[in-house]
Design goal:
The chain is built from 13 helices and eight strands. The chain is an alpha/beta fold. Helix 7 packs across helix 10 and helix 11 runs parallel beside helix 12. It is globular and about 60 Å long. Bound molecules: S-adenosylmethionine. S-adenosylmethionine binds next to helix 2, strand 2 and helix 4.
Length: 307
């Protein structure tokens, strides 16, 4: 596993994530977002009796991980799929751990051909290259109201309405064909900020194209369906919309009392918790990691153990 290859993505919160799994013995570990195999590799090294199911919807990432993990391939099943769909195939296995490191990889962000960055030569943003729906459909087909809604909800963009109206006006003359063109267009009328003026709109389009929040919810729901007693589930998120979903779901699952808030007294037996929270507050990057990998700035990891 130590063979020297150029790795296009540094795994975030690696030590923190490993610490959540520290008592894992044997069974299967499902990496829902294998990417370039950074977390997967560390899990295989740290837990010699664990077998890995490595899932990614991006075929380039999965092929890279296959090469990287070649020396331990006998311990791994590689799966090209959306994780939420794949998870249900593992109902009958002994699942020791599940990890999802949600979002895009540095590689996906950096490739101009994938259209995730402000210099992109396409208007794409699909994580899964076999999906048809892309950023072109969102930007050139969505109504003004639909655009405004996603810019507001997924981008928390202050100028959502203005940007939606301007895009609709401009595409009547000429449709957008690249993310570079879109970024420059937004920057031409949105005031300068510390970050690029199109940052939040790009986040919103990416979430919409890949249905990222729905996918996260499904990963959580389906993890609950396949978990055994003792399974550890850990989720790494990169913005507050995602972290809120994870925090609220874990909190609900950990409640012993599930009576309606207006109930006069507890009648549910007060023993309904499905999980124990491993960390009440999310773990975040150390100073050292922040220096080495600025992308870790917004990363948070939470974990639960199924009862
Ligand atoms: C942040 S990267 C993961 C990096 C990985 N942990 C590593 O150390 O190399 C996220 C990866 O997850 C994949 N991905 C995101 N959501 C997914 C989903 N719902 N199903 C399958 N793959 C997903 C992306 O294609 C991307 O390759």
């Amino acid at each position: 596993m130590d063979k020297k290859i150029n790795i296009p993505h540094i795994p975030v919160l690696l030590n923190e994530t490993l610490s959540l799994f520290k008592n894992m013995q044997d069974g299967y570990f499902i990496d829902c977002t294998c990417g370039f195999g950074g977390h997967s590799e560390a899990i295989l090294k740290t837990f010699p009796n664990i077998k890995l199911i490595a899932i990614d919807q991006d075929i380039d990432a999965l092929n890279f991980a296959k090469k990287r993990l070649e020396p331990v391939k006998d311990r791994i099943e590689f799966v090209h799929s959306r994780s939420s769909e794949a998870l249900l195939n593992y109902k009958d296995r002994k699942i020791a751990g599940i990890l999802a490191d949600i979002g895009v990889s540095s590689y996906q962000l950096d490739q101009r051909s994938r259209g995730f960055n402000f210099e992109g030569e396409t208007l794409d943003m699909r994580m899964n290259q076999s999906q048809e729906f892309s950023a072109t459909d969102v930007i050139n087909q969505y109504s003004v109201n639909e655009l405004e809604k996603i810019f507001k909800e997924y981008g928390e963009e202050r100028y959502a309405k203005k940007i939606a109206l301007k895009i609709a006006e401009r595409r009547k003359e000429k449709k957008f064909t690249s993310s570079k063109e879109l970024a420059e267009f937004i920057a031409s009328f949105i005031p300068r900020r510390k970050i690029h003026p199109a940052t939040q709109v790009f986040q919103a389009i990416r979430i919409e194209v890949n249905q990222e929040l729905l996918e996260l919810q499904r990963i959580l729901e389906n993890s609950l369906k396949i978990a055994n007693e003792g399974t550890i589930l850990s989720i790494i998120t990169f913005h507050s919309l995602e972290d809120r979903i994870v925090k609220n779901t874990f909190r609900e699952w950990s409640k012993n009392c599930i009576c309606q808030p207006e109930a006069f007294r507890c009648e549910c037996g007060n023993n309904n918790a499905k999980v124990k929270l491993i960390n009440k507050k999310p773990l975040v990057a150390s100073k050292e990691e922040l220096l080495n990998n600025p992308r870790s700035r917004s990363a948070k990891v939470r974990g639960v153990k199924f009862l």
